[in-house]
Amino acid sequence: MTPRPTIHDVARTAGVSVATVSKAINGRDGVAPATLAHVLGVVEELGYASSLVATSMRRRRTNVIGVLVAEFEPFALQLLQGVSTALQGTQYDVLAYAGSVSAGEHRGWEQRSLSRLGGTLIDGAIVVTPTSTPADASVPIVAIDPHEGPDGPSTVSVINVDGARAATEHLIALGHRRIGHLRGRNDLISAQQREQGYRSALAAAGIPFDPALVAEGGYRAADSTAGAHALLDLPHPPTAVFAANDLSALEMIRVAGERGLRVPADLSVIGFDDIPDAASHVPQLSTVRQPLTEMGAAAVRVLLSMLDGGDREDVRMPAELKARESTAAPGR
After folding, report:
1. What angle do helix axes 221-232 and 246-258 make, rounded to 10 degrees?
2. Which residues, given as ranges, of the chain have pLDDT below 50?
3. Looking at residue 186, what is its pLDDT?
4. What local confidence, expressed as pLDDT, does residue 107 receive?
């Protein structure tokens, strides 16, 4: 292996002192503009990279934004794409960190992740669907799909009640009256608001709420399996299901197919998120689109503002109904 270039190699090649190189790469005063450009050119030419940890300790800035997710699933990946795009052309790089892929208790993964990264490797963090509100963080935080309300960190989310109401109204307009709901994670505001939107649409249409038609989904396919079976095991199963996210909706379709039911001929299914698999699935999944890349970009804007001394901020974005092939008029 070729040895990594050192600061002494940079100084020797540039014909300057090690102290001048140190000032140049750490952004300190005392280096003429022409010398600065020359040294940085040599740094790039040699591929020299000073220790991120050492540099951050000296400057108290790393110029790195952390994106903390539980795991790299489709929802998080689309948000990460928006973050990455928004940071192009800025001084910041992105560090994506999955906090709950290892064995053990996953609740509180964001707090553990922040304690490992905050203040040493990252200047600020965007935390996606946290299991709890990070307390006493050493860096500014923006939460996407927050765990709690306005007393926590800055937040970016979609207007969940309106989106869920639109999904349920879509099923009602098709003629469905027995509509099930696979709810999301109980600890997230988004899941509570989506169930609220579901109930609101039923009430507006004069359809009595039936608690038997609500089953646990948990926002993950594996967590939705039991709930999907429970809905279909009812003496009078639903003719349509609104799932709180697309992963649960796709699992609902899989379970229905396993039981010999056709979607949408025997069961209509609609989700929430509009992840890439929604449009590529057969049948294409009807869903409510969250502007995920735009939400990632908004989180960047809020976080950079906070790093410049700005106040906390809550951003709410509209959701959009995407009616596709998995919903139709009831066939039974």
Report:
1. 50
2. 52-54, 56-58, 103
3. 84
4. 67
* Beta-ladder partners of 210: none
**For the whole prediction, is pTM greater than 0.90?**
no
Tell me the residue length of the chain: 332
Print the SS3 string covering the chain. Answer: CCCCCCHHHHHHHHCCCHHHHHHHHCCCCCCCHHHHHHHHHHHHHHCCCCCHHHHHHHHCCCCEEEEEECCCCHHHHHHHHHHHHHHCCCCCEEEEEECCCCCCCCCCHHHHHHHHHECCCECEEEEECCCCCCCCCCCCEEEECCCCCCCCCEEEEECHHHHHHHHHHHHHHCCCCCEEEEECCCCCHHHHHHHHHHHHHHHHCCCCCCHHHEEECCCCHHHHHHHHHHHHCCCCCCCEEEECCHHHHHHHHHHHHHCCCCCCCCCEEECCECCHHHHHCCCCCEEEECCHHHHHHHHHHHHHHHHCCCCCCEEEECCEEECCCCCCCCCC
pLDDT at 150: 56
* Tens-digit pLDDT profile for residues 74-112: 999 999 999 999 999 898 999 998 876 554 555 677 887
- DSSP β-bridge partners for residue 206: none
**What does the block give as tokens for 220?**
């993950």
- In this structure, the number of other CB atoms found within 10 A of the CB of residue 56 comes to 18
CB-neighbour burial class of residue 284 (10 A; exposed 0-12, middle 13-18, buried 19+):
middle
**Residue 103: its pLDDT value, please?**
47
- The set of residues, in sequence order, having a beta carbon less than 8 Å from that of 72 and lying 6+ positions away, is 96, 98
**Structural tokens at position 118:** 């905050």
- Backbone angle region of 175, left / alpha / beta, with phi > 0 → left and psi within -120 to 50 → alpha: left
Nearest CA to 121 out of 109, 110, 113, 130 is that of 113
Distance CA 94, CA 81 (A): 11
pLDDT for residue 42: 85
